[in-house]
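User: Show me a protein chain along with its predicted structure.
Assistant: Here is one chain, sequence first, then structure tokens.
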Amino acid sequence: NGIEITRYTLVSSGKRFEEDRLSLDGGWNSVERPHRINQAKLEQVLRRRAKALDAIDLRYLHEATEIHQHDGEVEVSYRDLRAGKQGKMSAAYVIGADGGKSNVRREIGVKLVGGYTHLARVESVFFRSNDILALFPGKPAWMNWVINKDLFGNLIAINGKDLWLAHCIIADGQPGLRAEDFERQLEQTLGTKVAFEVLSQESWQLNRLVADTYRVGRVFLAGDAAHIWPPWAGYGMNSGIDDAATLTWMIAGALQGWFSNRALDAYDAERQNIGEQVSREAVKMAAAQQEITNNIELRKQVEEPGERGARARQDIRNRLIDDDSIQFNPEGLNFGLYYDSSPIIEYDAEKAPDFEISKYVPSTVPGCRAPHFAFIETGEPLIDRLGRGFALLVSDDAIDVSGLVGAAAARGLPLNVINIAHEPKARPFYKHKLVIVRPDRRIAWRANDTPPNPSGVIDKICGTMP
């Protein structure tokens, strides 16, 4: 109900492939495009998939209470909250992905390093209102930031109709947001009163916390149990998925016998550093936005008529686009992070491209994500052909890969050989004749010649080096 300061153009999911070039986050080096989905919908998708897999025993309202490790296994004591019963189960390995207040993390004695950023304490309010959609003077937006003399407010459309999420700042000294505080902040955000029904609410603060280790014995941490930072652009969820993609192939290899239990330390070596990197970037972006929106003088001027108000809005617009818009184009976060100190990656002299949240430079430097391309005859993306194990990409018909294939077979390592020698879309990225890609799509090794000791290469990437 005021003057639009700026708008970031993000294509709707339904039109992503038709209008991708028009979007702030368009043109990513990926077979799939960015997709926004709220947690309530995503969990339904994941639940359906989990229920369809016979290997999964899905139990809700259970909590881990104690964890003990002995004789090469983990014993977990749990409480069934619905039935009020207690029980125990044992496993070769346990992954604690039980959120920021992780019981698993506490049980294994892992500490979170970092702390409160002092940027803000926030109340997230999920509510229903049939009045809001009609208030938009023009084209509605998915996420709406409102800047005025009273507040810096946030309103997110959940279903595009009647469900909304508001993030409200909790005043210093207040334990949380009172009903009258939310009503006032919502009115200041919308510029008018509306009828609403609060469905749920939760208070939180902008922390930067990373576990000091992601592994203790046979117990591992992933997702929010391992790292917590300001929830900018879904980085926490995306990083948690990447934790799982890195960890689970290693555990599968250990259970199948071709990956050593000792080498599971590689998960901590690879992902703990990533948690540190992303947490600092998230705080940096949150701080940059706060610096802009906490400028009280500009906020007082932003609704003024005339030249002074126009200058204030232009100043805010310019700074937001320069410092804030990158959070909505995190191509570098999703594809550009690399592992630079892993014991199971064979590095060479070339350095990986520098990491930036919104910039991705495809590279086959060991530790980087395998660059995407599509095969010329079928249009099939590389990722669909890689398979679930390792893949050896060969860019020269004349090179003999039997030594590597034999060494992998002897170790029991699943290795899929893929010839890309005549794929024009691969050539800009895959300049080495031999490239080994891990199950998590990371480059494990590359060379231009057959290695003199193929078994040494295979031993290195599956963690059996002495």
